[in-house]
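input
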Amino acid sequence: MSSPASWIPLRWPSAWIDPALLGLLEGTRFNCLAMEWSAALAPVAARARAAGLTLVAIGSEAARAAGSAAGLELPPDSLLIAADSVWPGMTAEERGAESGPTANPWIDSNGWLLRLARARSPQKTVWLMFEPPPPPRVVLLENYLRAIADCGAAGGRWVVSLDSSLRGALARGDAKALESWKAIAAAVAFFHHWHSEWAAYEPVGVVGLISDFAGPNEAVTPEILNLMGRRSLAYRILAPPAAATATLAGFEALIYVDEGAPPPALRRRLLDFASNGGLVMVGAGWKQPEAKPTGIDHPRLDVRRLGKGRLAICRNGSPDPFMVARDVHMLLGRAFDFARFFNLAAFLSHCTASPDGLSFLVQVVSFAIRFPEDVATVWVPGKWVSARLWSLGAEGPAQVEVVDENGGTSVNLPPVPVYAAIQLVGPGWSRPRS
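output
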């Protein structure tokens, strides 16, 4: 059996029992079919195997068992199918205009979920299995492209699933549906074939979140990741055992708001980090604070001075994830942002760097309509020699001008409806430091 790392999956519609429909895969990079097994699919499975496709059983336990009995592969241990994924988009358009502290409008995304899954299981390939919304919702091509980009930018793979309207139109050979299908297949190939090396790029960020993400912390700390992403606050994830010994180079702030007191070794590490100039935000379970009060009248935090740095202790035993994300950003300041965005709204970003530090990648997934006259700007720290702009549907990258500005580099972006990737190349990596 080939490795899941090489699989580019499509969820085969159960109603597609005609083997001739496998012709849709010609010219695409799909090489793996996820099937919820029924006997009616046997002719399709036989022809797919003959074509060299990998077949994987999905669905209920009974469906997987039936698929395995019919010769389909069961998901191996090296494949992680993450739970709780969502259809990416702005949910305000479904629920009506909403206001709230977390976002306006509210953006549903799987970026944080994929980041967490990959941090906890770095050797595994991560699949997300979510369905397009059912009728009467109309699923447009840009919705599919956004779903692919939302997963691909975070290094995961969506098991592409088609809505009932597109499934029916493709089965009938509808010309417009075939054009949409080609665009969907091209977007999948963009991430998982032509730019598969981007998945090995490492997340950058000066904020580290330390949590076991389990038990009483399962609701709060994942939502902190989600909300830091919405603020375009670049972060990295640390598990508590590793955080006590891992290098903390490049971090300017650490967050540990898990319930209860941290283990002694981690507590010492956090104190050392603050003493050497860092910002540490901890939960109300932190006992016997060694730091000196600063006198800052903060409604949610007891901010204390410790050596060259600060210790911020949550007053509430159940901190609000939105306020944690906001407060750490405000206390740290914008000087340490890894990217700043101007004239952009309703978007999410991912900042990663190549392992050798010579290439910096800023990926933007847009959830809003952009008009032809819109010009957005992205500013990144460091001096970069050149920049290339990648977008879905383009034949290749566009060279964009880099401008030295405010100690960093600015890049102007043309209107990009769904996704843009700015790849900066330079003689070396320059990270902001305190």
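quick obs: Confidence is low (pLDDT under 50) at residues 92-104, 430-434.
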